[in-house]
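cron nightly-structures :: item 1 of 1
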Amino acid sequence: MKDSNPNGELMLLSGTGNPVLSERIAREIGIRLAEMEITSFADGEFDVKIGESVRGHDVFLIQPTCHPVHENLVQLFIILDALRRASASRITAVIPYYGYQRKEKKTQARDPISAKLISNVIELAGANRVICCDLHAEAIQGFFDIPVDALTATKILARRVRERHGHDVVVVSPDTGGALRARRLARILDAPIAIIDKRRPRDDAIEVVNVIGDVAGLNAIIVDDLISTGSTLVGAAHALREKGAVGVDVVATHGVLTEGALQRLQDAPIDEICITDTIPFPNGQRSFDDAPKLRILSVAPLIAEAIVRVHEGRSVSELFR
């Protein structure tokens, strides 16, 4: 039966950024991923061949721009261009992890605003809409002149915290900039919040100065949008233990986890590190045996529901209630 949706029949495509997540999203929706072949020339340039017609379809392209960042970005741009030239009715870029998002403003003279540049190229390549998850700064939504559905994994992470600790927790922001994120999680858990006050004596060093708030006798839940080197979280964990926290968990949406980060977190006084699958399993890890503290939750149901709602023209904001 022909789809009566004005944007055409729903179609899912996936780049190579996170094929496991793409398959999970497809299973949640109950459709298959459309055929597409992505190859490389001898010099490393990508070539894309979409294996079936997308003309008049409502196409959702799933492609996070995580490591290898530049390869995944170029893939995203090329596939968007191919879809636009193939006359897709509407093209939605589903970007579970948005690369270059940490450079969303100028902090000193002659700085680029890389997050804005990436948004410009995504639109230029052919995207009509964007679905993403837990942006580093909410202002990035305003960098686009097309609709952006900025999802959050806060409820998914909150569910895990509730399973482990019930209500006996305090939610901790690892810096003052993350206070709003901590407050949102604390509201769901009906828990108090604390903030780590730190200063950076050098660009490559972090010194924890104080813990603002009472954490004694509670399980401290440090919440962040992403984990990169893990240094901030390690310093925060030590400070919280010194202030009397009986346990320390870390919850974050994006496990960027650069080289050495996971081991650094494993060696810290942290009980569990909980991330989602917006980014594939950390590079260099052979199995979960190498990371007994790590737990990965899936955002596939959340993204799948958002895709269906966008396709059917229903509210996406209801997912945040």
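cron nightly-structures :: done
The chain has two domains: 10-153+300-320, 154-297.
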